[in-house]
Amino acid sequence: MITIRKEEEKDYEAVFKLTEEAFRDREHSDHQEHFLVEKLRKSEAFISELSLVAEDENGTIAGHILFTKLTVENGTETFESLALAPVSVKPEYQNQGIGGQLILEGHRIAQQLGYQSVILIGHENYYPKFGYKKTSNFGISFPFEIPEVNGMAVELVKDGLKNKKGMVKYPKEFGID
């Protein structure tokens, strides 16, 4: 039995450890995700309602997800969206659907807060299960080279990305210029 709730300050240490563990053996990782979460919590991009933990019946934090503000810019217009990064599940809890529960609950809350879309870089076989499509389908690109199949976005509302073409601009905490 997993409960999804808003992350609290008392969870920070457990989230730091689980994020490090979740990415420790990942091939496509800079192994800095746990530090990124700390930086983003202190940033203007942070939305406390969209930092969620998955807790088991014993109170163990099994997973965490973070959605932060980002923009899509095209020279004349700027559109607000969300970045999903990272989603972390403790290794012993992986492949039990916890990441998916975190993603769906995050989408629900983001939609309630008025956000229309989420953008991420992720595994091409995992995120489409949650409605994500290639950002190239929407005319959205990244400020660095990635395989086209790994840049994805989801519309949280109908036409949430319609005519919102441009380049993703991450908060400075991501370390991307």
UniProtKB/TrEMBL annotation:
PROSITE patterns xref list: GNAT (PS51186)
Protein keywords: Transferase
Residue intervals of the N-acetyltransferase domain: 2-161
Keyword S-adenosyl-L-methionine annotated: no
Keyword Transferase: yes
GO MF, any single term: acyltransferase activity, transferring groups other than amino-acyl groups
A Pfam family annotated for this UniProt entry: Acetyltransf_9
The protein, known as: Predicted N-acetyltransferase YhbS
Origin species: Chryseobacterium contaminans
Phylogenetic lineage: Bacteria, Pseudomonadati, Bacteroidota, Flavobacteriia, Flavobacteriales
